[in-house]
Design brief:
Strand 14 (533-537), helix 19 and strand 15 form a beta-alpha-beta unit. It is elongated and about 95 Å long. The protein is built from 24 helices and 17 strands. Strands 8-7-9-10-12-11 form a six-stranded parallel beta sheet, sandwiched between helices. By secondary structure, it is of the alpha/beta class.
């Protein structure tokens, strides 16, 4: 019996398999199992995708998110085959852009950082949502200037993670018809079979949510998969999931086994696969006919890019005002934002509401929502009547997103919105920020301008008890690299914080109070040239410290109070040098764990002590709880006297 004859398309798929396997083999590290099972899916995705390998920032390109990020070897092999300039032999090497899991990189046409399973598909929902919003805002008759799809490749592990369910539920509710998910369904995970931990009927689950579900029994059939993708791209009402049944580790001795997941094949094993599949070139090389096949596909894609540029020029002539707004999303130019503080006492959350609406009036890019607590956090953009206008498929112009009780999905979807040019914010109680911590980490890792607005800081809502009191959360947020955490002490400082956070387009967390914040900033400035001590505090605790300052002044003990809206070095600036030069004891005060102030003391060589909130809190009225945990002006004043070794009077 002679060798099987493969079509050009089948040979192209096998080429992706061997290139991906060789990339991993050369690195001596990676995940070959998915490379071999999902190559037909990747070939079909990129054959249908609208993108230009020369320009990873083309705004109207289709986006791709490899949610199963361990399949990065396959992604790089595919991008290389489609003409993206990279050296596959640098995979997983120190300093290389070809990371162990994909990291957003416009030069390499990588649209999203992935690796933590489940987050990729949830982020893809955010990208698809952005496309739908942008198309509604900017498209006009005869001018579909925004018209592209979001593709996502998932594995069994991605769909086990709860965040995938949270986000996919919303994708169906919002009718994100241009979201197409391909599921590499091989029923195998790292430790064994999927069945040992998951008995769900995935097709029924997605149908019940309102998705268009397509099943491909033979996931190795790139012809059928390509046809199904083309049909899915015509969907007008539903997102699509194509469930392709594949064999992990296809073509190897590990086929169908969990041992294939993280396997690294030898070059000899891969050479045998090349021979079996009729690929006659040496390692890391491609048959001439396959190379020409990919070049032809790329030429078609470049042509689409040229046509869009011409269409954009025509759009600019016909709709100059809309074009200028669209450029803000495409180019993301620096924009000076201004927030004006009302001259009255407001709670932190109410002050935040005022500032958020002022930001909205200055940029078309603001969008955001809440995890079912908008009426409490006040983080929403009001319409002309002061009401909350909620986004839906039938209300595409609305700026407020109702995420439901889904903090994690809210964070990941916000990341997707930011990847597509928006300035998103999202909000919930500080005590529940832990639900979305992995998404916050990804915002920081990708350097995305997502602003997390957390309210009910410190004792928060003490009548609700310790579950609703945030204590370790502030310090926990501060230790995430590349995110600036803010706790403004009054309305004026809240205005400054909102300006800084949104204007600088960096990952931020703004922590706001539930209770009123009287004006504090004038009192926090140096009021004596040579104070005996300095009280440093954050957020609503500053007002307590200002009262303690008054009590101490009445007995002849003079201290300065310094508000620390952020402990980030680039925000503290020269203030800490000035405090260092005073050479006096420092008392740090914060309704949270004391680690942040202790770290600050250590960094700047300060001597002093900390009044912190190191328990899980109490239940009761605000006054009783604050008294019980030691956050009163009298107790702060006593602590200063103790620091100065002055006998209480």
């Amino acid at each position: 019996m002679g060798k099987q004859i493969y079509t050009l398309e089948q040979t192209a798929v096998h080429t992706l398999r061997v290139l991906g396997a060789e990339t991993i083999s050369h690195a001596k590290s990676g995940h070959t199992g998915m490379v071999l099972s999902a190559a037909p899916l990747m070939y079909s995705i990129y054959t249908n995708m609208k993108f230009d390998p020369r320009d990873g920032e083309w705004f109207n390109r289709d986006r791709f998110v490899m949610s199963a990020g361990h399949g990065s070897g396959l992604l790089y092999a595919t991008l290389w085959s489609f003409g993206v300039n990279m050296d596959l032999k640098t995979f997983r090497k120190y300093g290389s852009d070809l990371k162990g899991h994909p990291e957003v990189n416009s030069r390499l046409c990588i649209d999203c950082t992935t690796g933590p399973l489940g987050q990729g598909i949830a982020t893809a929902v955010g990208i698809a949502l952005a496309e739908k919003k942008l198309a509604h805002r900017f498209n006009r008759p005869e001018h579909d200037i925004i018209d592209h799809h979001t593709f996502c490749l998932v594995g069994d592990g991605c769909l086990m993670e709860g965040v995938s369910y949270e986000a996919c539920n919303l994708a169906a509710l919002w009718k994100l018809n241009k979201l197409i998910v391909l599921y590499d369904c091989n029923n195998v995970t790292l430790d064994g079979t999927r069945a040992m931990a998951d008995g769900e009927d995935t097709a029924k689950r997605f149908r019940s949510m309102g998705w268009n579900v397509v099943i491909v029994p033979d996931g190795g059939d790139e012809y059928t998969i390509t046809k199904k993708i083309k049909t899915a791209m015509k969907q007008t009402e539903k997102p699509t999931i194509i469930i392709a049944h594949t064999q992990i580790g296809f073509g190897t001795k590990y086929e169908g086994s969990n041992k294939a997941h993280g396997s690294v094949l030898s070059m000899e094993e891969i050479a045998k696969m090349r021979n079996d599949w009729g690929i006659l070139t040496p390692a890391f090389e491609v048959d001439e006919d396959v190379l020409e096949h990919f070049k032809k596909l790329v030429s078609q894609k470049k042509s689409k890019h040229r046509k869009w540029k011409k269409a954009l020029s025509e759009y600019a002539r016909e709709y100059p005002d809309l074009y200028e707004q669209l450029l803000e999303f495409i180019e993301r130019p620096h924009k000076d934002l201004t927030c004006e503080a009302p001259k009255k006492s407001l709670s932190g959350r109410d002050a935040g509401h005022v500032m958020l609406n002022q930001i909205d009036a200055q940029t078309p890019r603001l969008i955001g929502g809440n995890a079912d607590v908008a009426s409490s956090t006040k983080a929403y953009v009001a319409d002309g009547t002061g009401a909350i206008d909620i986004f839906s498929h039938d209300n595409l112009g609305a700026k407020n997103i109702a995420y439901g009780v889904r903090e994690f999905a809210m964070g990941t979807i916000s990341n997707g919105l930011a990847l597509h040019g928006y300035l998103p914010y999202c909000s919930c109680f500080l005590a529940f920020s832990d639900y979305m911590r992995p998404a916050i980490r990804m915002s920081a890792m990708m350097n995305l301008p997502v602003t997390y607005i957390f309210t009910h800081d410190g004792v928060g809502s003490p009548q609700d008890g310790k579950t609703h009191m945030a204590n370790e959360h502030i310090a926990g947020l501060r230790i995430i690299p590349n995110i600036t955490v803010y706790r403004p002490c009054d309305v004026a400082e809240t205005a400054a914080v909102f300006e800084y956070a949104f204007e600088n387009e960096k990952p931020s967390a703004i922590i706001l109070s539930r209770g009123n914040l009287p004006a504090c900033i004038p009192s926090t400035k140096k009021n004596v040239e040579r104070p005996q001590a300095v009280i440093m505090a954050t957020g609503s605790e500053v007002q307590i410290c200002v009262k303690a300052q008054t009590l101490l002044g009445a007995i002849g003990v003079f201290v300065n109070v310094k508000s620390i809206p952020s402990m980030a070095p680039h925000v503290l600036g020269a203030d800490m040098v000035e405090i260092q030069n005073l050479g006096v004891p420092i008392l740090g005060v914060e309704l949270g764990r004391g680690y942040s102030f202790l770290a600050l003391f250590g960094k700047f060589g300060l001597k002093g002590d900390v009044v912190a909130f190191d328990t899980f809190g109490l239940s009761g009225s605000d006054e009783d709880v604050m008294q019980g945990i030691g956050f009163t002006p009298e107790k702060i004043a006593d602590k200063v006297l103790e620091l100065l070794q002055i006998t209480k009077i």
